[in-house]
Amino acid sequence: MARVIEYIYRDSIIHQLNPLSKLAWALGVMVLALTFNDPYYLLALLISVGLVGLTGRVMKDLSGVMKGLSIFALILVLLQVVFYHGAYREAVTLGIAMGLRMMTVVLSFLVFLSTTQYKDIILVLTEKMKLPYDYVFMFMTSLRFVPTFLNEAIQVGYAQQVRGCPIDSGNPWRKMKAYIAVALPLVLISLKKAERLAIAMETRGYGSNNRTYYKEPIISTLDYFVIFLVVVLIIGAIILRCKGLGVLH
Amino acid sequence: MTTSNNSLIQLNNFSYQYPHTANNALKSINLSLKKGSFVGFAGPTGAGKTTLIKSINGIVPHFEGGTFSGEVLLNGKAADTMSTAEIGRSVGTVLDDPEAQIICLDVEQELVFGMENYGVPPAEMEQRMQKALASVGIAHLLGRSTASLSGGQKQRLAIAAALAMLPEVLVLDEPTSELDPLGSEEVFRVLKQLHQEQGMTILVTEQKTDLLARYCDQLVILREGEMVLSGTPREVFQHPDIFELGVALPEVTELARRYYPQAEPPITLDEGVQFCRNVIQTFGG
Amino acid sequence: MNPVIKIDGLSFGYEFGDSVLKDIYLEISPGEMVALVGQNGAGKTTLVKHLIGLLRPPAGKVRVADLDVANTRVSKLSRQVGYVFQNPDHQIFHDTVQAEVAFGLNNLGLPREEVEPRVTAALSDVGLEHLANENPQRLSRGQRQRVALASVLALRTPVIVLDEPTTGQDYQERKQIMALVEQLNKAGHTIVFITHDMSLVAHYASRVVVLCQGQIILDGDTREVFRQTDKLAESLLLPPQVTVLANQLNEPLNTSVSPVILSVDEMQEYLQRVREVKRNGAGD
Lengths: 249, 285, 284
Known about the structure:
Chain C: Its main location: membrane. Chain C: It is found in: Cell membrane. The complex is a heterotrimer. Chain B is α/β, with parallel strands linked by helices. In chain C, helix 3 packs parallel to helix 5 and helix 4 crosses helix 5. The interface between B and C is large, with 37 and 38 residues.
């Protein structure tokens, strides 16, 4: 889980792109994925996203997550088959479309997050998108603490198990009760950590006015090209959609 | 009120009470520290060490709330009239838990965090960053992720991050409590160096009294919110009441005090060896 | 006597990374008080986690109280081994000290009339009986550490493992906790404790095991281990100040080797004897 949202350092053209154009790309992929529901169109889209991931040399690192997602997609297909009121064939096609759509959107954001540094994301969201710095920073910092949190969860689990807490019990009711013994200390610890962190940030001038940024990511010609391409693709998709292509009835 | 103008930090009759508590955490503290001091604070749990540090970096009362009387002056200016961020420009803070005070994912970002907040021109950051890292001896770690550092390295990074903001004083609250002996020594060696080479003013609380004895110029013992002893480590360890105050003495000091309760005791190993040679040579017994 | 802990060629490595433990052989007899020392990352915590099944050894490699840890549930092992974690906050979640201490006993399914006296006894052992109805979150770190200790004591296990029980504690609290551990040992419990504080080791342990990069490099009587200054230096450990002091004085008395001094009391006695020897020598 922890690895899902981690920045992966590689030397690639995707890494060098401005976060803004990568964000535009990910959002564009989302719009395209929502525009069509023909599995072939969606498959093509997914492959294109995969190619971007390959160019960014992060697909190997994301393969574990993608495996999990495929299983999830398969469940989506099954659910469609079970609950869809209509022809069996139609249900399967719709289920596959939903699965592909989900995988495409998630993968595009994973590629964005794993090829872009946190600080650059913060910078783009606050300076370019004009979102409030406090919220963006807190959100990104809470992501940063996910691995720490998971590690704490393991330690708490250990500490309760050695007092005979039946986390390894087969009985689901006992097991659920046991998890309360893990959840509560975890909440208390996180509150304490959050307070420490807040103190550390305050004493280092968090919340002063007129902040600066050490390194601002540059916007290159390639970035303009990427953004232009995304816009063209979206317009093209809307035209296709209006003509009734790529949509199943 | 006495306001001497050559004190960097001055506490006048300062008392403080945390919200929802019955007793004062600090009771009428009077303390005046000049630029270039290296002061250690010791005392049992609940003595008020952490609260004292927090009163100097503005966390008390700004962040914690509560009530206070008396005043804390930084360069002659009352600390309660300044915001924590404003105080942070002149007072750099290092906390005990290396995990909770590292804010960012990589070393570089951690160092520029404070500078960005204070609006330091980007062109200046590079140079300040290099200098801060070099001062704590971790220049080679610039490209690393913070998660990959050892406890001692994390604490040195926290010191460097504070130094990059060019503070006048560094306050550290039990910076070695989560570290092993090597890591602890590492941190204090860096502090000593900062003090000697850059004249940095350093205030540090610590349970390991032998570290304070070896590195600090001045030692302050607190108990139940009061300042009970203050002086050079040797003077403090020589005091007749020291055994009642719940602080550990270096073993050589404890040994020497059994022979000569009144005399100036040794506080380092080398002094201890010399002391024992003298004891042996005086024969008798 | 049969060992209560028997580790037979245990090695361990996490999925990604170097091996953490290499070929560990260790036998601990009932009633021993063993200090486990070494730098951070030497493998101390990893080793003791194998004693209660938090990490699973291969079959037959680790036996505790005649149970093969490899195929025994943690909840069953926890009746034999009490484990006190370094950070009390990892376990405390009840709103009274009393309920916190009763938690493990309730998990064992003990009847109420047995739980209550055990809780009271454990709290009085750690000196917190007056705070039985207090909320643990309002206590100091040292007091919370003692609550965690009491909640393990109440289980009355033959073996007790303590992972850095004195971290974050002041001088008096450290002495109190170790005095209690010593008392438990005298009452027959087998104790294994991890610490960085060499004077605690010198004062309380009868046996010291030194781990360095996943291997046991020294194992023996406390005095014998502290005699091996070179080997200790290799794993970057420094014996207590008085031990080094006596070593540097290098006054061998009448024997060929100078004694290993473990406390200020011993140092005082030793100086006395050196003086006597010198006086007699001068009198000849």
